[in-house]
Design goal:
The chain is of the alpha+beta class.
C-alpha cells in the first residue's frame, strides 16, 4: 500500500518522538537529549538516547535506532502501515482508506480477523477448563503444581472430547468455513464437515510480544499421540519466529533470559519467580530465534532437559546463539530431568544457585566432547586436542580465544605454547593451507584500521552536517556525496546533500524513512549519533573538522585513483593526480 511522502511526513511531524516514546518508557532530560532504559534489551544504566532536534532515537548499548515509525514498529511488532495508522489516529489524522490496494486491504483484514478468532478460541478454551467438562484437565494442571493465578496469567484452557465443539461455537459467531480453514483451528472435510484441530487437550495459548494470541499448543489428555500438538503455520503464526513466554519475559529486568524446552517448564519457572524464561515451540532453535532474543538481552542460559536429547538440543543451539552475538551458558538440572522437576524437588533458591553456577557454553561443549575419547590412549588424546583447537578457532576475538586457550591448558595440564601452535596451525589450514606471514597480517590489520577510521570520519561528518546545516556552505566545492564511500554512508550522503539542496535543511527522521529494514534504520540512526563536537573548544573543533574533511577527501581520491587504474582511464588518473598534489600542497582549512 502506498501513502504520499507528504502525508507520512505530516504524521511524523505531528507525533513528537519524546512524547511518543515517553508514553512507553521513562525518559529523563540529559543535556540536549533525553535518556532512558532501553526497552529492546535489558540494562540497568540508561543508554537509550532520544533526540528532540533530530526526532530519532539510538541505543548505545544494543545499537537499535530509528525514528518514531521505527520505534512503534519495533515495540508493538507492527508493520509500517500499522504503525502509520496507529500514529495517524494518535495525531487525529484521517488516512485516505482508498489508498489501500485490494491485495493489501485483504491481507490486513485477514490478519485482523485471525487475531480476533484466536482470541475467541482462547476465551472458549479457558471457559471449558473452568466448566465441568474441564475437571480432568484442571486436575492435571493442579497436580503439576500450577496455581489459579498462573493458569489465568498464561490463559490456559481445555479443548473437550467432542471433535467439532469449537467448530460449532465459531460457526455460531458467523465465521465461514473458508476463513476457519485458514485459521488453523479447524480442518474442513467434504464428507465429515468441520473438525477441530485440538480436542481433549490442555490448551496453551501462544502469544506474540504484544499479548495477542497467534496460535495454540495442546497437550493430549491420556495416551494419545502426538503428546504435544501446535497450530499449523498461518499468516500470523510461524514457529521458527516465535518464542513461548517472551510476551512476559521481555519485561523482566533480569540480566539474562532462560531458554527451556517446553510450555510447562516456562510456566513452572514463571510461577517460581523466574519471569525471564522462554521456550521454542517444539522446533529447533533458528537464527531468527537468536536474533529475536538479542533484541532483549546479551546473555542466555540454556536450561534444557538433562537427558541425551536435551544435551543434543543444547549443542545445536549454542553456535546459533553465539553467531547472533549472545553470551551462552548452560544450567545443569542433574539429577533431575527439567526445571519443573528440579524446582518441585529442591525449590527456587536451589535453582537460583544453579543459575549462578551456570557453565560457560565452551566448557560444556568440551565436557560433552571428552566423553567420546579415551584420554589414556595417545592417538585418541591427540584427536581430542585437535577438536579442541578447532573449537578455539570459533572465537573471533583474539583476547577471548587466548583466555579460553589458557584455561584449557591449565585444565588438562598441557603446555600452553604447544596448544597455541596447534591452534595456529589448524587456523592456517582452515584458510587455505598457507600460513599468513607476519608482514601480511600487519598489512591486513593496517588496512582494516584505515577502513574503520575512514568510516568513522564519514559518520562524524554526516552527523556534523545534520547538526549544523551551515557547514554545507563551508565544505562547498570540497566535499560532495561522491566522497562518502564507506558502507551505508554513501547512500545516506546522497540523501542528506539532496535534502539540503531542495529544502535548505536536513531532517534526520525523514532520511531514516528512506530505509525499509530495521537493521538499516538502526545503522542510519547510529551514523547520525556520532559526534565529538560538544567535547571541544572552538579551536579544537575547527582542527577536528578540517582534519576530517581532509581525510575524507584523500580517501575519495585514492578510491578514484584505483578505479582509473583498473579502467585504464589515463585522463581521469591525471586529473586525480593533480587534485592529490593540490591537496597535499594546501591542507584543507575550514573557517568557522
Amino acid at each position: 500500500m502506498y501513502y504520499p511522502e507528504e502525508l507520512v511526513e505530516e504524521i511524523r511531524n505531528r507525533n513528537d518522538i519524546i512524547s511518543v516514546i515517553g508514553s512507553y518508557i521513562k525518559l529523563q532530560k540529559k543535556g540536549s537529549n533525553h535518556m532512558g532504559l532501553c526497552p529492546f534489551h535489558n540494562e540497568r544504566t540508561p543508554s537509550f538516547s532520544v533526540s528532540a532536534s533530530k526526532q530519532m532515537y539510538h541505543c548505545f548499548g544494543c545499537g537499535v535506532g530509528g525514528n518514531v515509525f521505527t520505534f512503534i514498529m519495533e515495540y508493538e511488532n507492527y508493520t509500517f502501515v500499522e504503525a502509520l495508522k496507529f500514529l495517524a489516529e494518535r495525531a487525529g489524522i484521517e488516512l485516505p482508506e482508498q489508498e489501500y490496494s485490494a491485495e493489501a486491504r485483504k491481507r490486513s483484514d485477514l490478519r485482523a480477523r485471525l487475531l480476533e478468532v484466536n482470541k475467541e478460541a482462547a476465551k472458549y478454551f479457558f471457559y471449558q477448563l473452568k466448566s465441568n467438562r474441564g475437571q480432568a484437565a484442571m486436575r492435571y494442571l493442579k497436580d503439576r503444581g500450577l496455581s489459579e493465578d498462573i493458569i489465568k496469567k498464561f490463559g490456559l484452557g481445555y479443548s473437550n472430547k467432542y471433535s467439532d465443539d469449537l467448530y460449532k461455537y465459531l460457526k455460531g459467531l458467523n465465521y465461514d468455513d473458508v476463513f476457519l480453514k485458514q485459521s488453523g483451528l479447524v480442518t474442513i472435510d467434504e464428507k465429515r464437515g468441520g473438525m477441530d484441530k485440538f480436542w481433549n487437550r490442555v490448551m496453551f495459548p501462544i502469544m506474540d510480544i504484544n499479548q495477542k494470541v497467534i496460535g495454540f499448543g495442546g497437550r493430549v489428555m491420556g495416551d494419545g499421540m502426538p503428546k504435544y500438538l501446535n497450530s499449523p503455520e498461518t499468516l500470523i503464526f510461524e514457529k521458527s519466529r516465535t518464542l513461548y513466554g517472551l510476551n512476559f519475559a521481555r519485561s523482566s529486568r533480569a540480566p539474562h533470559l532462560l531458554i527451556c524446552e517446553g510450555y510447562m517448564d516456562v510456566i513452572a519457572l514463571h510461577q517460581a519467580g523466574f519471569t525471564n524464561a522462554v521456550a521454542a515451540l517444539g522446533t529447533a532453535f533458528t537464527s531468527f530465534h537468536a536474533n529475536l532474543l538479542k533484541r532483549f538481552t546479551d546473555e542466555v542460559l540454556l536450561t534444557f532437559d538433562s537427558d541425551q536429547a536435551g544435551t543434543q538440543a543444547s549443542l545445536r543451539a549454542i553456535p546459533i546463539l553465539k553467531e547472533a552475538g549472545l553470551t551462552v551458558k548452560v544450567v545443569s538440572m542433574k539429577p533431575y530431568k527439567d526445571p519443573d522437576d528440579f524446582i518441585k524437588a529442591l525449590g527456587a533458591e536451589e535453582y537460583q544457585k544453579r543459575i549462578n553456577e551456570a557453565q560457560n557454553s565452551f566448557f560444556f561443549e568440551i565436557d560433552i566432547l571428552e566423553r567420546d575419547y579415551d584420554l589414556a590412549d595417545p592417538e585418541q588424546k591427540t584427536r581430542f586436542f585437535n577438536e579442541i583447537a578447532r573449537k578455539l578457532l570459533s572465537f573471533r576475538e583474539e583476547m577471548e580465544r587466548n583466555f579460553h586457550l589458557e584455561a584449557i591448558a591449565k585444565r588438562y595440564l598441557i603446555d600452553i605454547e604447544q596448544l597455541r601452535r596447534l591452534v595456529n596451525r589448524m587456523g592456517s589450514q582452515m584458510v587455505g593451507g598457507i600460513s599468513e606471514t607476519k608482514e601480511y597480517r600487519e598489512t591486513r590489520r593496517s588496512k582494516k584500521t584505515l577502513e574503520d577510521g575512514i568510516y568513522k570520519s564519514q559518520k562524524l561528518m554526516l552527523t556534523w552536517l545534520i547538526e549544523d546545516n551551515a557547514l554545507f556552505e563551508k565544505i562547498k566545492g570540497i566535499l560532495s556525496p561522491e566522497d562518502f564511500t564507506e558502507g551505508i554512508c554513501s547512500e545516506v550522503a546522497k540523501l542528506v546533500f539532496n535534502q539540503y539542496e531542495q529544502e535548505a535543511t536536513v531532517i534526520p527522521a525523514k532520511i531514516i524513512n528512506h530505509f525499509e529494514s530495521k537493521e538499516e534504520q538502526s545503522e542510519v540512526a547510529a551514523l547520525f549519533s556520532a559526534g565529538i563536537k560538544g567535547e571541544m573548544d572552538t579551536a579544537g573543533w575547527k582542527k577536528a573538522l578540517s582534519e576530517t574533511v581532509q581525510r575524507i577527501k584523500e580517501n575519495s581520491l585514492d578510491k578514484q585513483s584505483e578505479k582509473a587504474i583498473e579502467a585504464n582511464d589515463t585522463v581521469l588518473l591525471q586529473k586525480v593526480i593533480k587534485q592529490k598534489a593540490e591537496l597535499k600542497k594546501h591542507n584543507i582549512r575550514i573557517d568557522l
